[in-house]
Amino acid sequence: MTALDVGKYLTVKVTATNSAGSVGSWSATSGQITEVPSVATAPVVSGSATVGATTTVTAGTWNGLPAPTVTYIWYACPTVVGVAGPAQPTDCVSAGSTTNSMTWTAPHVGKFATVQVTATNSAGTARQWVAMPTAIAVATPTATPTPTATPTATPSATPTPSATPTPSATPTPTPSTPPGIVEPSLSGTPVVGTAVSVNTGSWTGASVFQNYGTTYNGFFVRNIQLALNLASITTSVDGNYGPQTRSNVTTFQASNGLVADGIAGPMTYSVMERLLSNAAQITYAWFSCATPVAASTSAPPASCTIINAATTSSYTPVAGDVGKHPSVRVTGARSGVTTTTHTATIGAVSDGSTPTPTPTPSATPSATPTPTPSATPSATPTPTPTAPAVTGQPAITGVAKVGQTLTAGTGNWTAVSPYQNSGPTYNGYFVRNIQIALNGAGISVKVDGVYGSATRTAVRTFQSQKGLRVDGVVGAQTWAAMQTVMTSLTKFTYKWYSCTSPITSSVATLPSTCSAVTSGAAATYRPVAGNVGRFMTVAVTGTSAGAVKTVFVPTTSAVVP
């Protein structure tokens, strides 16, 4: 068939022939020949690409039979679409409008206004992507400056006039700070027991949209599947609009009062889009830093270590944070793009105590006129300020006797964290940490920082184990479960030794006089008869001053029976 056949009906004449003659019969006609939509005149966008302004798009003109229905979805894209066409731009985020116009807001600044125009009829779908040529910007203020009044010279009483005052220069008005990007920051006083909070600035929740892969009726299949899961209809997020997805779309439509035909059209997707938009969220992870962080940074500061299970918008410092600087990793959307920042710190954590001032010694009393001098008063001693409690390196406590318990104290060291806060991220989480958590949960995967098919499959297994939505996507809920695993992996390690001679101070290298104790790998050890006359030490591995270290602690006295 050709374009000339569109709108017509097909019939066929069948003729049977033999030596005796022939006879013909006409079939019933087919349905009317339809035509898949195609663009005749491309849609055009117009308006101002500024915050508060409205951009509109024409429908264009479309070929197709039946006459196509035209729908719209607006996006904010990181790069401009140079030529209108059906090719899908990458990394675009839905701007929320499904009409022929869109009013832009501060989070869209720096992005390019882009609209997907879709023409649909019973024969199929066609679409065009059209964009404004310039990025969305903040409107330039037009306030007229009020010039400084020119002073009127007052004539001097003397014939010689005083110098004519030079009028103040008319200031160039400084426009008020535009409603652009305001980075997250901390507020509060970093004191033990007092909460420090995050101000999220102009950031918004990170989008859950997955705008890539195959489409169905102009909508990304992954987004359809994500919306079904958000509606508690478990669906594999694989980008395949197969029988499972179609059946689940039917269920979704029925539960939302829509025509239950399994076809995700504009009305169905508009309901799904609201679910996806409402799922956007900002996530947090708190860090304790040995040195201040002067300004927000996307890279994790080298002196910072993560605080396990601190994942809300506020954190209350504990005694172990004294002297450290709290910072928080915020993951959200800035100008429509998901991004991560580590906030600047606001000072070191204090214990909240007010130091006792050193009293001024009493003045030496004047000598009295009495012949017998008064006894010289004792000098009022200057009190020595109480030194803060200092806990040093790990050490052993207990009695070195057969059957008694020796305990390895950890001093002011902290447990070894399994986190590897480096390399690529996925949804704002370091991929290596995701992989470490998977291994910690007994799911073997290579820790290489690559979120490939093996890691995605392992995440699905983890989600299934934890009763989470199985989609292979590490979001806030999945990461929270992974952090629980990471907490279980955060620990000190110990190894006990018996020595023929004492160790008087901590050393980093095992002395040649010491040999390992079988099964001595816990924080405690009970000497046995074979240890009598020997000196016990333990190798403790923990974190000191932000670095993982191992130390062999000073030995006990010789073990007695």
UniProtKB/TrEMBL annotation:
Q: Where is the composition biased (Pro residues)?
A: 162-178, 356-386
Task: List, alphabetically, the InterPro entries matched.
Answer: Peptidoglycan-bd-like (IPR002477), PGBD-like_sf (IPR036365), PGBDSf (IPR036366)
Domain Peptidoglycan binding-like stretches:
221-272, 429-482
Identify the stretch(es) annotated as Disordered: 141-181, 333-392
Q: What Pfam family does this protein match (any one)?
A: PG_binding_1
Bias kind Low complexity: ranges: 141-161, 333-355
Its protein name is Unannotated protein
